Amino acid sequence: MDTVKAKYFLAVAESGTVTAAAARLGITQPALSRQLRRFEKELGLELFVRAGSALVLSDAAHALIPTCRRLLAESARAGQAVEALRAGTVPALRVAATPTTISTLLAPFIEAAGSSIPLLSTTPVSHYDVFDALEGSADVVIATIPPGDDVASLALGTIPVRAWMPPTHPLALECTGSTSVDVQRLLQEKVALPSRRSVSRGVVDSFVGAAGYALGSHVECDDTATLCALARAGRAVAIMTELQPARLVGFDVVDGEHTLGGVPLVAAWSPGHFAGRDIEQIARRFRRFVEGSLR
């Protein structure tokens, strides 16, 4: 399969129209149309069907999209492998993770590691689409859900979900000398926590439900910086996976002998990746960084 034509096809599939795709690719619309017709002829498939005055993707085209994405990803990795062999080192890697994982864990790690690791750039993805990024431009993903057997992986530990508030908050003062807060008492306060799109929210809901309670006054937000801001402003107690937010103190949430758990993290990458050894070494360093931040 021709990678250039596959790239053109994906551009149309992602842009919605040939005109928009041509502008994105920097070529003329007639030139792109010719390439698409040649692609259909080479494959022996009808990729576009007419719906009124518009062209839409056929069923075969929709089925072809993942294959083309994998092809382009492998082609890009092959080019990176050649560059790495020429240089004798891996110059850069792209990491896909949720926005929360990027802001609270990856960004601090990248800053702390400095030039001792390849240049890491990040791509934000949703929790449940993270492994799909390996079929795109991502070299490695940091996930909060278990990987399949078709990828190489390394467990990174568990990030605890805790209640965070200013040290002057009445609840924090009540808990002076303790590292935990009772869930029943916590739920008497207004809390800020991620939405149900978040894995950590599922952990909270399961724990609260098992304890026999329900969330009272609360606000939902999937941006960790905003959750921290609400807590620092005294507007709500933030329940989140942040490691050590500035000007806030954290408490484990307990119900008798039971403690609110955390979110497991795992690094995953494609088997046979040209930088697989480097990725695993970086993942191990990242794990040590996370462990050190939790002490």
Index terms:
alpha/beta, 5-stranded mixed β-sheet, 10 helices, 43% helix
In short:
It is built from 10 helices and 14 strands.
Overall spatial form: elongated
Number of strands: 14
* Count of separate DSSP helical elements: 10
Indicate the radius of gyration in whole angstroms.
24 Å
Q: List the helices and strands in order.
A: HHHEEHEHEEEEHEHEHEHEEEEH
Q: How would you describe the overall organization of this protein?
A:
There is one protein chain. By secondary structure, this protein is α/β, with parallel strands linked by helices. It is 43% helix and 23% strand. It has helices at residues 3-15, 18-25, 29-43, 59-87, 99-113, 170-174, 183-186, 199-210, 224-232, 276-293, and strands at 48-51, 54-57, 92-97, 119-124, 140-143, 152-160, 162-165, 180-182, 191-193, 218-220, 237-240, 249-255, 258-259, 262-269. Strands 7, 8, 9, 10, 11, 12 and 13 form a seven-stranded mixed β-sheet that branches. It has a five-stranded mixed β-sheet with strand order 4-3-5-14-6. A two-stranded antiparallel sheet has the order 1-2. α1 crosses α2 (18-25), α1 (3-15) crosses α3 (29-43) and α1 packs across α4. The chain is elongated and about 75 Å long. The N and C termini lie far apart (51 Å).
